[in-house]
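Sequence in, structure out.
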Amino acid sequence: FTHTAFSFAHESGVTNAPVDPNNVAPGTLIALVQKGMQYLELEANVDGQVRSADEAGASNDRQELGGRA
């Protein structure tokens, strides 16, 4: 888990944020990720495409990489 924590901190820039870690409730990251997945699901349904969040993310990844969706 050490490598994962390092990667997250480096990629997100969280170490440069003016946030006191003592004021962040346990489970905040998980709640944010879950909310993001809910928004993906909502966006897919609003677009008229009834897909799961997994399918929406998978097709977006293929498009971003220049592959066929």
